[in-house]
Amino acid sequence: MSDLSHGDNNAAAVSALRSAVMLLSRRLKHQRVDESLSPTEMSVLGTLARCGSATPGELARKEHVQPPSMTRIVALLEAKGLVRLEPHPDDRRQKVVRQTETAEAMLEESRRKRNAWLTHLVDGLDEDEWAKLRAAAPVLEKLAHL
Predict the structure, then answer these.
(1) Dihedral sign for Cα atoms in the order 25, 49, 102, 44
(2) Rounded CA separation 47/58 (Å)
(3) What is the SS3 assignment for 50-81?
(4) d(Cα 82, Cα 44) in Å, to the nearest integer?
(5) What is the pTM of this model?
(6) What is the Cα–Cα distance from 34 to 107, expressed in whole angstroms?
(7) Which of 23, 75, 85, 108 has its CA 20 to 30 A from that of 2?
(8) Following DSSP, what letter does each residue of 77-146 receive, concatenated?
């Protein structure tokens, strides 16, 4: 274990980081473009945007839900015109889920709205705080993908 994982100061910093990330995440989730979509539906669309098309089983694994739940989520997204099911190129028994242009546009608008909200927040920081946040962003990105 590294020295970073020991001590009261580090425990307090980890606790403060967890609390801040959770609160910021909850507040960001409220900056949605389409209120009719659940957070899970938005997450699935985000996964498709990042990873490309996937089978429902692959999506279930990536989203940490059971396959029957993902089947229901995909059906809801399909009914809303946000994904389409296509034949799997190698396995005719399976389908591939692909997001539609409507979903791409909605996700782009959602990113724009959330970025604008965050930009408004960081406008309240002084230059030293803003510099620290810019320096911390790559570290937070790394943590998010570990």
Answers:
(1) negative
(2) 10
(3) HHCCECHHHHHHHHCCCHHHHHHHHHHHHHCC
(4) 11
(5) 0.73
(6) 9
(7) 23
(8) HHHTTSEEEEE-SS-TT-EEEEE-HHHHHHHHHHHHHHHHHHHHHHTTS-HHHHHHHHHHHHHHHHHHT-
pLDDT score at 112 = 92
Pair of tokens at residue 129:
């705080």
- State the Cα–Cα distance between residues 48 and 109, nearest whole angstrom: 16
Residue 86 exposure: Cα atoms within 13 Å on the Cβ side: 12
- Model pLDDT, residue 39: 83
> Phi/psi at 98 (nearest 5 deg)?
-130, 135
Give the residue carrying structure tokens 């959602």.
110
